[in-house]
Amino acid sequence: MECTVRWTGQSGMTFLAETGSGHVVAMDGAPDGGGRNLAPRPMEMVLLGTGGCTAYDVVLILRKGGQTITNCDVKLTAERAEKEPKVFTKVHFHFTVSGSNIKVSAVERAIKLSHEKYCSASIMLEKTAEITHSYEIVDDSIASA
Question: How far apart, in whole angstroms, are the C-alpha atoms of residue 98 and residue 133?
């Protein structure tokens, strides 16, 4: 896996990252740091990448387990160290899984497997941050009745 990050050369702190798979993502800094707030901050990208990694795992595990899911959201809330390097010190993952007759045990298992075995990003973050999880299940069959 590889990527290239280039400063756009414009005034400010905007960077374009190109992934090895050919996708481009913009990043920018906060106005008080020379940025123009045109795109997510680099550390926000770390957080959203981690959310994508674990959501992918949870959906895949639930589907393979025969669960009928229609949606999966994960909200990440993070705290950072006050001094440099401002690493994440706490990250909370709150999953909302929607579908029909989803088993609580299946959701708990999927989250556990993601965070202990499959999600490389959250496993890396665990080296500096306290990781916690919560979840809720929305039963579509009840909601539509």
Answer: 17
**Res. 11: pLDDT tops 80:** no
CB contact at 8 A, 54 and 94: no
Residue with tokens 């899911």: 69
Domains of the chain by residue range: 3-33, 42-143
Which residue stretches of 40-103 are H helix? 42-64
Domain 42-143 listed as CATH 3.30.300.20 = yes
Summarize pLDDT for 47-62 with one digit per residue, the tens: 999 999 999 999 999 9
- In order of 39, 116, 136, the CA distances from 67 in angstroms are 36, 21, 15
81: amino acid identity, one letter = A
CA distance linking residue 113 with residue 108, whole number of Å: 9
Helix, strand, coil abundance in the chain, percent, nearest 5: 35, 35, 30
| Residue pair 115/123 in contact by the 8 Å Cβ criterion | yes
Q: Are 133 and 115 in contact (CB under 8 A)?
A: yes
Global confidence as pTM: 0.91
Peptide bond before residue 85 is cis, with ω within 30 degrees of 0: yes
